[in-house]
Design brief:
By secondary structure, this protein is an alpha+beta fold. The protein has 3 helices and 7 strands; from the N terminus they run βββββββααα. Strands 2, 3, 4, 5 and 6 form a 5-stranded antiparallel sheet that branches. It has a two-stranded antiparallel sheet with strand order 1-7. The site of zinc ion has 7 residues, from loops.
């Protein structure tokens, strides 16, 4: 989403801040890593404030619907991510700060690209672990998972235990000879 902050830089400085309700689709980069995949628009109350030559963008009451996979049964569910506020400074010049390179005011017309900021905020607010409410979990998948051998049996300690057991048995075998 391209947002025009030009009015904040008008010679007469008529506007100290810009306010707008936004409802935008957030395109995702191909290397998107967060588990949450938007399937609706992002809604928020946006305020842009001029700070000398930079612009501070504040978002309030942010929400967006999207799909996320259940950590237990891997079935996808549509949830709404919602959080209170986010903020980001857009710099007058392309910053050299790592991870902030995308946050600058395009000098050819006082435009800022909000998309990388919105993507970042969605990723930050995606729950690390998501699980359905138990009654929604796919019982078939859960049963299959229960039927598969436990992880414990392939841990290094379990393998060590097996080796020791083999050793013991061979020793017993030798003694008995
Ligand atoms: Zn589930």
């Amino acid at each position: 989403m391209i947002f025009n902050v030009g009015p904040l830089f008008a010679p007469q400085e008529a506007r100290k801040e810009l306010k707008q309700d936004i409802a935008v689709e957030v395109a995702l980069p191909s290397n998107w890593e967060a588990a949450f995949v938007p399937c609706g628009v992002l809604r928020a109350k946006l305020t842009a404030v001029r700070m000398q030559n930079d612009v501070l963008v504040l978002l309030k009451n942010v929400s967006i619907a999207g799909e996320i996979e259940c950590g237990k049964c891997f079935k996808k569910e549509v949830i709404e991510l919602a959080w209170e506020s986010s903020e980001q400074i857009f710099y007058a010049k392309k910053p050299k700060i790592w991870g902030e390179e995308e946050f600058f005011i395009d000098p050819s017309g006082y435009k800022i690209n909000l998309t990388p900021f919105l993507q970042q905020e969605i990723a930050v607010h995606t729950p690390l672990i998501f699980e359905h409410s138990p009654e929604k979990c796919d019982p078939e998948v859960l049963q299959k998972l229960r039927a598969t051998p436990k992880m414990e049996e392939s841990t290094p300690f379990a393998e060590l235990k097996n080796l020791l057991q083999i050793e013991k048995n061979t020793q017993k075998h030798k003694k008995s000879k």
